[in-house]
Amino acid sequence: MPGGRSRLKHWIAIAGWLFFAWMGGPGAVAQTPPATGRGLLISDIHFDPLADPAIVKRLIASPPDEWEAIFQSSRQKSFSRYGADTNYPLFSSTLAEAATEAPFDYVIFAGDALRHNFPQAFVAAGGSSDQFPAFAARTETFVIQQLQNRLKVPVVAALGNNDSSCGDYHIAPKSAFLASMADQLKVLSTLREAKSTFELGGFYSMAHPTIANQDIIVLNTIFWSASYRSCVPTEGDPGEAEIEWLGWKLYTARLLHRDVT
Predict the structure, then answer these.
(1) What is the pLDDT of residues 82-123, one digit of tens each?
(2) Could you give the C-alpha distances from 140 to 17, 105, 143, 259, in angstroms and in order?
């Protein structure tokens, strides 16, 4: 990814600002304030909490709710260099820039919250392999919390291939990592079925935040990759199970005359 401010434009895409141009017409959901018909798309953050070695031990010892203060205490104020993953100054600046694009109704986060080669980098930075799964989950939590708290609209999030507690393309079904992320996503807080399927496989379906009779289906495409490997033994093929689930969701949507995106 490009470095500095130019990289902002690479991992913030304002996805089809008129996402659904008929927002004010028949079938629109009344909003306070009114729905704008716009959505913000963010992808490939690749946040690196290890960028400042001086604060890594404090991060390992602290819950995600305390991380922002730790990052702000860091002497590292410049953006990460070209070709490196995203440090806190760049992440914070990008969210501030994204907020200036308001108003928008919701955010689609297309995944890859975590830095590349995270397990190896964590051990090299002074952590242990036993500590890594919890640290990866806390890093994912921090990114989701920042998106929700600073953009102040529903965040519909998907998984990327680096979003795992045991390595690239190695997400495990029914893992503590998925359960932790499900607990953080506010859009799942009142949706029992959606939260359950996310905890089990990292995919879910939910009603569109502003458009009546429309659902958003969020898929975990990692299960379908030729590079996918589970870090633990699994029962059956999670990718095949997800395909069956998707077929059922599309079938029921047709029966109920609901649109799907």
Answers:
(1) 999 999 999 999 999 999 999 999 999 999 999 999 999 999
(2) 27, 23, 5, 31
Nearest C-alpha neighbor of 198 from the set 188, 211, 213, 208: 188
Rounded to whole angstroms, the Cα distance separating 43 from 97 reads: 15
How many whole angstroms from its chain centre is CA 244? 24
Q: Which domain holds residue 64?
A: 5-260
Contact at 8 Å (CB) between 12 and 80? no
Residue (of 150, 154, 253) closest to 209 by Cα position: 154
Phi, psi (deg, nearest 5) at residue 99: -65, -25
Which amino acid is present at 10?
Answer: H
Confidence bin at 42 (pLDDT 50/70/90)? very high
pLDDT tens digit string along 162-181? 999 999 999 999 999 999 99
Tokens of 98: 């994204």
* Predicted structure pTM score: 0.86
Q: Cβ distance 37 to 105 under 8 Å?
A: yes
- The total number of structural domains that make up the chain: 1
What letter represents residue 36's amino acid?
T
Phi-psi region of 174 (alpha: psi -120 to 50; beta: other; left: phi over 0): left
Q: Which helix (H) or strand (E) holds 178?
A: helix 176-184
CA distances (Å), origin 54, targets 8, 110, 127, 234: 26, 31, 13, 38
